[in-house]
Specification:
binds zinc ion, 58% helix, mainly alpha, globular
Length: 340
Amino acid sequence: MPAQITHWLFFNEVKEILQNTHPLYKEDKSDPGWLFLASQGGDVFYHNQHSMPSGVSYGALMHRRDGDSFLMNLAKQIGQSHPLFWLAFMTHAILDQEGHPYVVYFSTAVNPTGSMRKKWYQMHPFFERIMDRLWFEQRTGQSLFAHWQEGKGFDLNSLPERTILDALGLALELTYGEKVRQPDRSLRIHNAYRDTIGFLQYSDPSRRDNALWAAQRDQEDGEQGGRNRLALFHPVGDLDAYDFLNQNHQKWQHPVSGEPVYDSWEDIYDRAKERVLKAGAILADSLQGHNSLEALKDIITSRTWNVGDLDGKSHSPVFTKPFPLPDILKQEYSILDGKQ
Ligand SMILES: [Zn+2]
């Protein structure tokens, strides 16, 4: 997965195209804040780190297996009333499927031990934020920080309405059965969305005060800490030293199979876009009675949303060659310290 802004951009590009070809998507007047949250897909459950009881295990479940069944079930529950919410959720899953091998290859130290482990902690989300900034700037021609400081970032006013949260719960139960048949499931889902809003507001690119706070806490902890809180903020420093988006099509490898790959981030993004446009069209056509929803399964596929093996099953990475991300994070501390 890339980070929050890339997922949001991706959804908006897809939405614009589909609204022209399938007017049904124009009729959905869902709150933009809800759609922003929907574009974060199953990651909202990962963000449930404070409020209890937590829905964090739901995020792991849907990223690991049967994501296609989950999305089919969700389409049946809310496709009719909130097609854009479903579309946004689905775009996240497919961009995860296509993009995770890239992110993992370039950000993961395989089996780090001791101090290396602390050094590499949170480097996956940090790399996603590097990509997020560069990709936003390339795609829109604007500075990410200027854009957010002008108040043009995302507006997170409210939780998605109750019917949507209930539909998510039902789709989870239809897919994962016993594992998610908890009496407090609704509360867990509610908490996940609440914590996600809190996290996104905290790490908003315009909140340099929070980045400074995170950096100071990290520095107070010293080498022993290893929390790397600053890694969850978009980096402000110069990022020109490396080709983070692989625009030069250098060879890299699939982190599980070791297969050589030459894709740039743009190639991956475009491939994901083709798939979600097809899936979005299938939902719209089926709602108008033109085809069955079953065709969605072939597009979404049963591949994990994490990194998978050749059968699409979740598997830890074996082949990686990360950028020197801990050094780039160090540069961020110096900038906030005023040393640079
Ligand atoms: Zn994800």
